[in-house]
Design a protein that fits this description.
This protein is an alpha+beta fold.
Length: 121
């Protein structure tokens, strides 16, 4: 019985050590420049732009086409998930998205994979 208990404790301690030893690659996105590309469908799925009614209520201009080709910078990492890394992005020229939002969140790994964001070399 003691051997079984010792084996269980050893197993859990090794599994916790393994979870802490995994390296995070999310810092690779920070302070890089990307370009907003046209969405693959009718709207952006991995760049979390606000809905048009919220933009209009705050007095902005809901023109998604004006953002195509704009350069953005990753300012901070918000969350890390198994499905991707959520980051906060802002426009490189310092202007605001739709004239009212200084930054917007995005799942950067999925957005790059789906070609919503293109890396600048």
């Amino acid at each position: 019985m003691k051997k079984l208990l010792l084996l269980i404790v050893l197993f859990f301690s090794l599994s916790f050590l393994n979870s802490y030893s995994q390296e995070s690659t999310s810092t690779d996105f920070k302070d890089k420049i990307y370009i907003i590309n046209t969405p693959s469908g009718s709207s952006y799925n991995h760049i979390y732009f606000p809905k048009t009614n919220f933009i209009k209520k705050r007095g902005g201009f809901a023109n998604y086409d004006a953002l195509i080709g704009k350069k953005i910078i990753v300012t901070k990492i918000v969350k890390e998930k198994k499905k991707g890394t959520i980051v906060s992005i802002k426009l490189e020229d310092g202007s605001k998205f739709f004239g009212i939002y200084p930054s917007i969140d995005s799942n950067i790994s999925k957005a790059i994979e789906k070609k919503e964001l293109l890396e600048v070399n």
